[in-house]
Amino acid sequence: MHALVTGASSGLGFHIAKELKMRGYDLILISRNEEKLKTAAEMLKSSIYYPIDLSKDYKEVGDIIEKFKPQVVVNNAGFGIYGDLEDQEWGRIEDMINLNVLALTYITKRAVEILNEGYILNISSVAACHSQPKLSVYAATKAYVAMFSRSLSREMKSKKGVRASYLLLGPTRTNFFKNAGMPTKGLERIMLSPDKVARYAVKKMLRGKRRIVPGVLFKLYCF
Ligand SMILES: NC(=O)c1ccc[n+]([C@@H]2O[C@H](COP(=O)([O-])OP(=O)(O)OC[C@H]3O[C@@H](n4cnc5c(N)ncnc54)[C@H](OP(=O)(O)O)[C@@H]3O)[C@@H](O)[C@H]2O)c1
User: Fold this and answer.
1) What pTM value is reported for the model?
2) What fold does the segment set 2-221 form as a domain?
């Protein structure tokens, strides 16, 4: 029984992988930086890991799904860019759309084609729920993830035994903000812990819940 997690080297993905491991799944870990991924794999006692830049080589994941037929597929790898659109570098925007949208869609499509039963969890954000100045493209990628997953989840309900869920995640203590160049002032006091979010998300996903929103504040924000 395998579970595939992208972006598993740190942050939420690492904790989701840990949670799935505790529930008896054999892990397939994917992220970009080989050293970081190897360290994470050692910590998670997992021997199956693939360093792949999913902004570019996401189609490689199709073969991995074909090989292992995982029961769980978590599309977690993603990043944001903070700043006025005119100041954001086009190459980074392209990589972000490729990763947050194209890679996620491709991996989901291959999972749906190949698997007869199991669970898909796509990581969106509460940024999808309202307009986000200085995060316009990032918020749009996450709105895509939410609507894509929501529609797919309903489509799948009448078909095979594959359930699709999506996580509307609020600010969470990970490297996300540093990588996005985003200040955290005013956010620290409402930030979620990645281990608690991971436990909650995995539990709800395995119960087949379509829309998962950790935290009362964020349930209200995305009401
Ligand atoms: N933290 C928050 O407040 C927050 C809120 C809402 C939604 N989210 C979403 O949650 C997800 C997880 O992010 P996080 O908060 O855990 O951030 P994080 O700590 O920065 O983790 C991001 C993960 O994605 C991987 N990754 C980044 N670019 C990649 C690429 N091109 N190819 C393969 N892997 C790549 C990273 O691996 P490498 O280090 O190897 O690149 C890392 O494992 C993301 O989709 C993010 O948009 C986060």
Assistant:
1) 0.98
2) Rossmann fold (3.40.50)
